[in-house]
Write a structure and sequence with these properties.
150 residues, mainly alpha, 2 helices, 0% strand, rod-shaped, membrane
Length: 150
């Protein structure tokens, strides 16, 4: 009979003084866990999330700056290459002009040398002809004198 009196009193759920005590223990445990574990863990996770966000922002800014610098340097490099090509082209043109001038001067010097040599040869030819005429005249006179003396 004792068993039936226990069943009659509370049955499966007994609503006596232990239920509010259990509720208070559950609330106290929830508050303690929230203060000791969940808030610090939440703070650490929030700090980590903020650190990651800041790192991503800084990395994005650094990447953007690096891309700008790369673009600027590539433009400067292209301009420098163009200037270098212009300088090389001008130097080649100047060298070609110098070569043309030197060739013209050499051609003119050669023409002057040929002209002077031709003039000198003509003078020598005239002198040689005059000399030959004189010798021919002299020989003719000697022949004439010998023929007349005979």
């Amino acid at each position: 009979m004792q068993e039936s009196s226990a069943e009659a009193q509370g049955g499966l759920f007994d609503f006596n003084g232990t239920l509010p005590l259990m509720a208070l223990q559950f609330l106290a445990l929830t508050i303690i866990l929230n203060l000791i574990y969940y808030k610090p863990l939440s703070n650490v996770l929030d700090e980590r999330d903020e650190y990651i966000r800041n790192s991503l922002t800084a990395a994005s800014a650094a990447l953007s700056r690096a891309n700008e610098l790369t673009k600027t340097y590539e433009q400067d490099l292209a301009e420098s290459r163009k200037k270098a090509q212009d300088i090389i082209k001008k130097a080649q043109q100047d060298a070609q002009q110098v070569v043309s001038i030197k060739i013209k001067e050499a051609q003119q010097d050669a023409d002057n040398l040929i002209s002077n040599t031709y003039d000198q040869l003509n003078i020598e030819k005239e002198q040689a002809l005059n000399n030959l005429e004189q010798q021919v005249d002299l020989l003719s006179n000697q022949i004439q004198v010998k023929l007349l003396s005979n």
